[in-house]
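Morning, I've got a small favour to ask if you have a moment. You're getting the sequence in one-letter code plus the fold written as tokens. Thanks so much in advance, here it is:

===
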Amino acid sequence: MAPCHKKKYRASLEFREKALKALEMQKRSDPHFGNAGAVANLLKAALAKASAARKCQPDGALELLPEDISDRGTDDKGADPFAELEKLYRMEHVRAKLEAIRRRFAVADEEGDALPILGHFVFTGAPGTGKTTVARILGKMLFRCGLIARPDVVETDGLKLTGEAVGQTKKKVEDELKSARGGVLFIDEAYDLGKGTYGSEACSALVAAMTDQTYAGLVIVMAGYQADMQSMLDTNPGLKSRFKHFLEFPDWEPADCLDLLETNARTENFVFEEWESAAKRVMERGFKKLRQLKGWANARDVRQVWDDLKERRAERLSAGPNATLGGKSFSLPDVEAAMESLYNARMGTVGGARKTGTDDPFAPLDGLYRMGEIRRKLQQLKNTAELLRREGEEAPAVGHFVFLGAPGTGKTTVARVMSAVLYRLDLIPRDHLVQTSGLDLTGQYVGETKRKVKEELDRAKGGVLFVDEAYELASGQYGKEAVTALVDAMTSEEYAGLCIVIAGYKADIDAMLETNVGLKSRFGHFWEFPDWTPEDCLEQFLRTAKQKQFCVDEGAAKSIIPPGFKKLLPLKGWANARDVQKVWEGVMQNRADRVMGAAGGEPALQLHAKEILPEDIKTAMDAMVAARLGSGLLPSDSGTPSSDPFAPLDELCRMESVKRKLQELQNAYIVAKQDGEEPPPLGHFLFVGSPGTGKTTVARALADVLCGLGLISRRHVEETSGLEMTGQYVGQTKEKVHGLLAKAKGGVLFIDEAYTLGQGQFGSEACDTLVAAMTDPRYAGLVVVAAGYRRDIDDMLRANSGLKSRFSHTLEFPDWGPEDCVRFFKRTARAKSLGLDEAACAALERGFAELVLLDGWGNARDVIKVWQATTRARASRVVARAEEACGKALVVADVATAIEELIRGRTMAEGTVSGRRRAAESGPSARAADRGPAPSGPPMPEGRTRDAAPTPAEMEVQADASSEKTETALAAEEVVCNEAGGDGDGDSRAVGRDPGVSDEDWAEIQMAKEEEQRYAERVRQEEEERKRLEAELAEALRQKQLAREAYEARMREIQRQKEEAERRLREEQRIKERLRKIGNCPMGFAWYKQGGGWRCGGGSHFVSDAELHRSFGFDA
């Protein structure tokens, strides 16, 4: 072949057209396009290719044809990027997306239209889903389409782009941008750009580069987890809009992993032994567990398993001369070991294949009592999962659990067993239990709670998280924050496979579940752990003794253990099996002390036989009850009753009916116990009567009687009042009531003046709480005694429909009469060895007859006050007459002084009303004679109380007396009215004073007048205050209405502005859409709104709004 001159060539027309087109595409994609240099490079490459392909023409010229110009995008090996994409697994949607991009640009190029804006890419997905590989293929594809100047892909990550000092981040970003200019910049784990100050700085630098002409033709691809990428894009408002293409790379399913492994096996001529059965099931379950753990890497994990399988096969074949080759196959142990190895590595543990022992996973439950129902439910879970797996079905998600019960019922032990069972059934990835509590999950400042919950969730990941005392999550702001975090975790893919178990008292857990509407629905299993009965405790004690080979007198144990635990049950801190264990440990200690003491420190063979004596059990049982009561005394010593528990009642008057009812109650329980029958239900008590009638004393005697009968655990009376049980703000009442119930647990709660529980919002709340407590198992064995006036107690019972039915016994406490008071006074004097003559007794009877008619009569309390005042008067008299022999006796003067002192104090406290009543009911002659008014109406019949409903005959007599009293009162009021016109300056014989009116009565009338005047003044002031408050309230309501109107007007203005902004935005989008159809400016830049028109990104082209209107018929 004749040599060709290197500069002599002939270019065909087709060559020229293709060369021109190639140069134009290069100019669009390369911002540093050099005209002469680009032409020279293209011609040089064409000549080289033509010289190698054909001979020179006869005239020595080399003819250049279109095929001498290389197609853009073909690499040195001539590989087609789409052919590489075909080799990747699960890339159908990615290929379709890239093919659509390629076709769009090819069509635009063929038709000679302006090329659309390429934009940048976001790849979202977990590691191992092919993001980096697709980015490399994308670079080749874009280069082949002539959209970028070179096919190179510069790979980096978000962490590498962020610096550690001011200015360092910007430099790092610029360095990477320069190295990737004209190609593709791939930023993996780009979500790190949204963290911290320097991450935000890197984001801003990238946004600036995306609009900088220096980097025109550069394509940026950001990749990372979908949720993290979304958060990162939100850190910069202009960043997300710069990305035009979003490609999602979904996680691989176990079936995808199996398909890839099978493909690899066929490619390399490997086979799996029993592939369709055991090996396939092992790998499918293994990949399912791995997907639920942090760090799941999809294809990378499949590749790691494949490499591990080949290594294990090689080790097995090279183990020794006895190893058989068996062809290129993987055995089941190879598969199990490879899967378990990767799982252990991901969990951070060391170990080989799973232990598939045949031991019973329920064996730990055998040591617990009353586990039959729980074991049955666990067996149901096991049976369901095994049957579905045997039939080739997918086992359902295990869900989450709620364990309801008191401490010591086995909740924690069951959680451990359940963890092992679920792991063996492949329902959770690992046999791992993390124990925590509701209190441990709540923080003390903002952000700490969420951190604590996440730490515990991460620790328990793939296993079981057991939250004991979970009801603590219902209290306070941070508890609710922990509940919200748990709800989020239950629906999060990050914690898929984690089983959460919350445990606690049933009532408290129910209340906690109500704090979050979505919480209860997340739990699929509610298991109850009932409290142990005394008989259960006995059974467990005897089982323990049998297991440890101890001899026990079962008859003696039955007479000691159930009654002892019956006392413990209602006390605070009852712990079921734990308390049985504590009693057992106490018995062992007592036995050791007994045996060692009897042997003098050296246990003889016959002394330390494995025998438990009744005294060993009784001492341990009594010590346990004493410790729970919070005293150092044994139960028999704590408030030890006298031989007669009713003796304190003998000191009071009118206790016959009360004592009779208590004795009847005692007899009924004693007879039922002797007959071996079930005793009648105890219930609660109502004590009806006035103050000072002995209600508190009887409540203490009642506690003594009930404890002696074994009906309550301790002789403790917690004394309170209805007012003390009501709070002053929301939530305080319930807290107060439960606090008092806890103090009285196992004894008697005595509520004096209980009628206040039916008054007001907080009183009603206290009433409702008390009713709920009367049927709450936590307060079983507690007796409630409500006391107060008959009429007020009836009102309180009517305020709550369920309260009255809770009280089984009502005891009446009648008011004391004058003779009862004198009898009590005589008994007290006799006990003090003080004499009391008949004259003094007569003075006492007259004085008490007047006191019982005054408001505030306190029965025994007033008698005690008179006694104390009488002894003080006697002491003063004896001291004043030191030289005379007074004797140890109370005289009329002592009694009269005491009575007068109490009457004076009572009448001063009562004011005018009391004076009017006495003036109406008694005349001056009677008052002068005995210093006491005659009773108003007939005497009270025997056995009737002041609050008892009158008979018809009594009502008639009372009506007559009332008529007489009314006439007398009207006459007295007429006198007062007649005197109202006087000047009030006269002496005791002034005008308006009737003849015969004593000075004492006249002074009393004057006091009444003054009181009327003061009352009228108070009424006037209260009316003025009421009007002032009404005016203030009206003004406040008016101001509130004005504020509401201003707020509504402001909201309407904001809405109007929002609608206007949306309208403008829609108009601008419409213009942008029309501009997109027009295409970029002649230089290929996008259009941006500026002033009265639109300017291109390069700045050299401008289209006014008027021109747009003329051309397209709309306003910009």
Observations:
- Residues 999-1078 form the longest helix (80 residues).
- The two ends are 69 Å apart (CA to CA).
